[in-house]
Request: fold
Amino acid sequence: MSSNTSQPTRTEDEAACARLCVDFANHLDARRYAEVLDLFTPNGTLDRMGTVFTGRTAIESFLNGRPTGMVTRHLCTNIRVLFESADEATGQCYVLFFQGSAEPDGASLAKGPPSVVEYHDRFRRTASGWRIQERRIRMAIQG
Reply:
């Protein structure tokens, strides 16, 4: 940051990290994959139920492999951010996960009851702001 710019407050940093959780869910559901990738550090890791993708190229490959007829909604709640230093934090949130299939009339048909997953994160401040260094997604309650 330049000397003319004030340092963000801890509250602003916490909000920026929490926003990463929500942005990830919203961009993923809308299939805005370039925006999902921008949430990660260049060497960031996405660990989805034990399958690990390291770096934006690997994460992009996973995203592009998502079935095109699948519709998802991720509702994030109970977001908690803890700071390890001025530029590193960890976080956790619960995510209510709905999955369905796209129908010709534009509606979606649910595929079973929702599940609850947990995001376990490591955040890092970069020149572009806070980014996800590592996201581990774990099943909490199978629908």
